[in-house]
Amino acid sequence: MQCASLRASRTAALAPGRVVVRRQRVLSVRPRVAADEVAAEEPAVATPLKWYERPCLWQDIADVATLHEVVKSGESVDKWTCIELYAGWCSSCKSSFPKICKLPKDKKFSPHFQFYKANIEDKGIAQYIKSAKVTGIPTIVVYKPTGEIVIGLNANFTNFRKVTESLTNFAENKDAGRWVLNPKGIAVPADWPVDADEME
Q1: Residue 155: which of 75, 110, 93, 70 has the closest Cα?
Q2: How does DSSP classify residue 132?
Q3: pLDDT, tens digit, for every residue of 142-193?
Q4: Backbone angles phi, psi at 81, to 5 degrees
Q5: DSSP H helical segments within the chain, as ranges?
Q6: Running DSSP on this structure, what letter comes out for residue 120?
Q7: pTM
Q8: Exposed, middle or buried, 28 (CB in 10 Å: 0-12/13-18/19+)?
Q9: Does residue 62 contact residue 122 with C-beta atoms inside 8 Å?
Q10: Residue 26 phi/psi, 5° resolution?
Q11: Rg of the Cα trace of the chain?
Q12: Which of 100, 112, 140, 181 could pair with 153 as two cysteines, CB 3.0-4.6 Å apart?
């Protein structure tokens, strides 16, 4: 019975005088786009900065010639010069970087020092540190305004308190002649007496 009723309805739909409108599916055809055109439309992805390229108030020294100029420039501005020696592959340098970047912002230090950093992966700078008798990195080499090298400070993250104490001593004792590291690894004038507690 169902089949008969279906046939009857189809026949009625096709009866004279009736117009049957069938909906047609419209297909949209998109033109093919070349792969290089797609790449051109996509925004370029910025290459992330290496850790030592992040914003920091230590100015970069590109080569050994610039390093020598920087060391001599202290006299014209009447400031001591601090040069941090580092390498991109050095994990200790990376760990110390945030603390090192804070030093130029410290009002105890900014009036007395100019701050620079040099990557020892440059061959000229690597050769220079050998002549300066630097044995490890990160190291902050301190120079008098005259350009005379004073001392190298171990700037390892775990030793950083010693760096700040040493810089405080430099700032407060500018007229001191010779400097040494005391038993605690802090830079002090050579003529300072050694306290018993420093021997511990």
Answers
A1: 93
A2: T
A3: 999 999 999 999 999 988 999 999 999 999 999 998 999 999 999 999 998 8
A4: -115, 130
A5: 2-13, 35-41, 64-77, 91-102, 123-131, 160-172
A6: T
A7: 0.73
A8: exposed
A9: yes
A10: -95, 125
A11: 36
A12: 140
